[in-house]
Each structure stands twice: as C-alpha cells, then as structure tokens.
C-alpha cells in the first residue's frame, strides 16, 4: 500500500484504513469484533503475519519480536495487548506496516476491512472517560453507517513502549525578543510539550485543540483588523499546527491562512508525525513556510524565530 493519499490537499479530507481485533472473553460468549482506524498516510503496506508468538523473556508483553522485510528489520507489536483486548487467535492474522515520527513498526491485528474517505468534520472527540484511558489511546470516533470506528494514537503507544520521549533532546535556545505563537494540536501531550519548549525560549503561547477553533479565532482577529486600518498586526508572530486534527486538519488550516489577504503574512509551521519525503509536497502545495517531523521538538523554537525574522525582513 502506498503512502500517497490520492486526495486534493487542503480539502479537509483524509483516508483511514479500517481494521479489527477479534476478542472472546470466554468460550461460552460470542466473538466480538472491535473496529479501529489509522490514517492511510501512516500505512506503508499490509502483510500476512508469519505467526510470531510472544515469549516470556520479552521486555514488554506487546513486543512480539522482529521480522525481515525487504532487507530491513521490522519490530512487531501486538496491538491487542496494548488495548487490553483478549484477542481471539486465527490463522490469517495481519500485520499493518506503518511509518511515522521517523519510525517504522508493524502492528498485529486480526484483519483489515477497507479504506474510507472521510472529512475531518466527521471525526468526533472521544468522551473524557475514553480519552483519559491511556490503554485505549483513542483520539477520535467515526461513525460509518452502523459501525463505530475508533481512531488510535499509535505514536503515543510507540513512545510508551520504547520509553523514548517525543522530545529526545533538550533545547537551550532562548530568543532575544518576545514572540507570540498559536498552537493547534489535538494531542494534549504535544500541546503541553510545545508550550513548555516555546515558553522557555521566550514565547507567549495560545493553544487550540483543532484547526477549526484556531481558524475561527484568526478569522475574528482579521475581521477586527479590517475595521481598523491603522494596524495590520494580528498580535501573533507564528502558527504551529499539527496535520491530523478533528474538525479541520492542518493542511486546510494552512491553505485558508495563506489565501487570506490579512492572515497570509503569518508564517505557518507544520509539525506532524506524517511529514515524510512522499508527503512533504502536500505542505508545500498549501503554502506552509516550514515542515518538521516529530520528534524534532527541540528545534521548533529556533526554527520559529528564523521564520518570523524572515517575514519581518521582507
């Protein structure tokens, strides 16, 4: 499966791969089908499981071992263990090979269903109970006909299993000038880490959980500025946005900003786990000023200042 999403960039559309994990609590109960989804942009391919079994000496119960895939070593993780689902084993289990945040990993599941083309407005936030459960790592809910599909935060799972924090390097950079930034990201963890990193570098930060809220805020600022011809400064120096977000994605947010007569002069930095060589051109198409792949959090403040200074020197 190619990572190339055959969609026009900036239309707020995306595609998910629907897959399932079969479970059975006891022999006298029916088998249940638990439905999940992952952004197709993170999927490299889908392969048949070679039948790996978890051994007792594994460091983490989710880690099943490694396989060789076209000359590369691919770690395999049992997704059901992380989700605390009693998986019903079958002969034709599937491994979803993914690539994001500069890491490649395979996730064992019971099977895949199909690919769905969706609009980000169809993604609902999980309720507080589900969102607070680390093992579920559910970042969104989608209803397709009679099916409820849970979108998973696999980045968080990888980070937790490997013990590697998203911010792998400390940053000692501090800006000489005080700047103001907007952050749009549906991950509370990423927002907190970005905010901390930026504030330590002499930034003032305002946060949003999705692109739509950020856009509405900016639109109001622009409307106020148009009523006041004496000033065209929006009050914010840079926008740092994720790509995958409910309601409005980062591509669409960036496109609307760059097509706006007033807002187009604010630099936009895309910070996402799905910025790869294959997808980099999508950010360019919508006018992003810079694109950075997680986990390069320590570089964000310095890159932000560079973009701000470039705009001010024009």
From TrEMBL:
Please provide the record's keywords in A-Z order: Phosphoprotein
Known SUPFAM superfamilies for this protein?
CheW-like, CheY-like
Specify the domain of life of the species encoding this protein: Bacteria
Q: Which residues carry this modification: 4-aspartylphosphate?
A: 242
> Taking every annotated instance into account, which residue ranges of this chain make up the domain CheW-like?
13-163
- Asked if the Swiss-Prot or TrEMBL record annotates the protein with the keyword Hydrolase, the reply is no
**One BP annotation, GO:** phosphorelay signal transduction system
Response regulatory domain boundaries: 180-309
Put simply, this protein is called Chemotaxis protein CheV
Q: Which gene encodes it?
A: cheV
């Amino acid at each position: 499966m190619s990572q190339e999403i055959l969609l026009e960039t900036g239309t707020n559309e995306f595609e998910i791969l629907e897959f399932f994990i079969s479970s059975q609590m006891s022999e006298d109960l029916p088998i249940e089908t638990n439905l999940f989804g992952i952004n197709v942009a993170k999927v490299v391919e889908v392969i048949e499981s070679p039948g790996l079994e978890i051994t007792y000496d594994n460091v983490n119960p989710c880690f099943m071992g490694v396989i060789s895939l076209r000359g590369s070593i691919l770690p395999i993780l049992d997704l059901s263990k992380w989700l605390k689902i009693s998986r019903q084993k079958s002969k034709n289990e599937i491994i979803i090979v993914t690539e994001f945040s500069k890491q490649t990993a395979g996730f064992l599941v019971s099977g895949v269903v199909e690919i769905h083309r969706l609009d980000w407005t169809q993604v609902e936030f999980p309720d507080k109970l589900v969102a607070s459960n680390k093992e579920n790592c559910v970042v969104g809910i989608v209803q397709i006909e009679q099916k409820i599909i849970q979108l998973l935060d696999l980045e968080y799972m990888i980070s937790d299993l490997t013990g590697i924090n998203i911010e792998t390097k400390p940053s000692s950079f501090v800006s000489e000038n005080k700047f103001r930034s907007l952050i749009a990201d549906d991950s509370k963890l990423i927002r907190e880490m970005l905010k901390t990193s930026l504030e330590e570098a002499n930034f003032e930060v305002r946060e949003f959980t999705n692109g739509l809220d950020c856009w509405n805020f900016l639109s109001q600022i622009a409307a106020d500025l148009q009523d006041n011809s004496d000033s065209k400064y929006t009050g914010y120096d840079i926008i740092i946005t994720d790509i995958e977000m409910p309601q409005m994605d980062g591509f669409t947010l960036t496109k609307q900003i760059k097509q706006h007569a007033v807002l187009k002069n604010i630099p936009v930095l895309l910070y996402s786990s799905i910025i790869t060589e294959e997808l980099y051109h999508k950010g360019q198409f919508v006018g992003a000023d810079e694109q950075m792949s997680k986990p390069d959090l320590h570089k964000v403040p310095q890159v932000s200042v560079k973009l701000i200074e470039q705009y001010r020197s024009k």
